[in-house]
Design goal:
- The chain is built from 9 helices and 2 strands; from the N terminus they run αααααβααβαα.
- The chain is mainly α.
- It folds into 2 domains: 166 residues, Four Helix Bundle (Hemerythrin (Met), subunit A), CATH 1.20.120; 62 residues.
- The protein has a two-stranded antiparallel sheet with strand order 1-2.
- The N and C termini lie far apart (51 Å).
Length: 230
C-alpha cells in the first residue's frame, strides 16, 4: 500500500471515529449525563465538518475507491444526528409524553428521505430543506431551557421544512460568504461548548450567551438571504 492510498484510507478511518463518538454519547445518555453526550456529539459534528475537506484534498475516491465515503458518512451521521437525538428526546422528556413517540417516529422517517435525497445540496453547497440536524435542535432546547410545547412546535416546523426549498448554510462549503460562515460557526461552536458546561449563575455566562445568540442570528440571516436571494 503506497503513501497516497494509506492517506486516503486514513480519511475513512477519521470519518469512522464519528461513530465511536456516537457510542460514547450513547453511554453518556444512559448515564443521564447530557453534558458529556453533547460534548461527544460536538466532536462528531467537528469530524463531519472536516472529513469532506480531507476527502477532497487527498482524493479519497481515487485512492481508496473500495469504500464509498458518502455512504460511510451517511451511516455515521444518521446515527449521531437522528437516532441519538431521538433517544435524548425520549429519555429527557423534551416533548410532551403523549406525543413524544409519534413525533420521534416522524423524525426517524423524515430523516430517511433527507439522507436519501440526491438533491440535498444546491449547486452552491447550501442545504436544500432542513438537513436533519436534530442534534443541534435538542442542543438549543437544552441551552434555552424551552418548554415542551415550544419544542413540539419547533420540531413540527422542522419536519415540514424538510420538504420545503428552504436553504441552510453549510459551515465550510458554501460558495458565497464562506469565510463569514466559517467564522460564525467557529464562534458558535466555542460558545456552545462553554454554555453546555457553564452554570447560568457563573460570572460571564450571559456575555457568552449573547455572543452565541448573535452568531445564531447571523447564521440564520445568511440562510434567509440565500433562500429568498435578496
Amino acid at each position: 500500500m503506497n503513501k497516497l492510498t494509506l492517506r486516503a484510507y486514513s480519511v475513512h478511518i477519521y470519518t469512522t471515529i464519528g461513530i465511536v463518538c456516537g457510542f460514547f454519547a450513547l453511554t453518556a445518555i444512559y448515564e443521564e449525563n447530557l453534558k458529556d453526550a453533547f460534548f461527544y456529539l460536538g466532536l462528531s459534528l467537528f469530524i463531519d465538518g472536516t472529513d469532506g475537506f480531507l476527502a477532497r484534498r487527498f482524493e479519497v475516491s481515487k485512492y481508496a475507491p473500495r469504500i464509498d465515503g458518502v455512504i460511510l458518512d451517511a451511516i455515521v451521521d444518521y446515527f449521531n444526528y437522528v437516532i441519538l437525538p431521538v433517544i435524548i428526546i425520549i429519555k429527557f422528556q423534551f416533548l410532551p409524553s403523549a406525543l413524544s413517540y409519534p413525533i420521534c417516529i416522524l423524525i426517524l422517517a423524515a430523516s430517511c428521505y433527507t439522507f436519501a435525497n440526491v438533491k440535498q445540496k444546491t449547486k452552491d453547497n447550501y442545504f436544500n430543506g432542513f438537513p436533519a440536524l436534530w442534534n443541534l435542535l435538542i442542543l438549543y432546547f437544552y441551552i434555552l431551557q424551552t418548554a415542551q410545547i415550544i419544542n413540539l412546535f419547533v420540531v413540527i416546523v422542522s419536519l415540514i421544512s424538510t420538504f420545503l426549498p428552504i436553504k441552510y448554510v453549510h459551515p465550510l462549503r458554501v460558495n458565497n460568504y464562506r469565510l463569514l460562515a466559517v467564522l460564525l460557526f467557529f464562534v458558535w461552536g466555542i460558545t456552545s461548548v462553554i454554555l453546555i458546561y457553564m452554570n447560568s449563575r457563573e460570572l460571564g455566562y450571559y456575555s457568552v450567551f449573547w455572543i452565541w445568540v448573535i452568531s445564531n442570528c447571523l447564521i440564520f440571516l445568511v440562510s434567509l438571504k440565500r433562500t429568498f436571494k435578496f
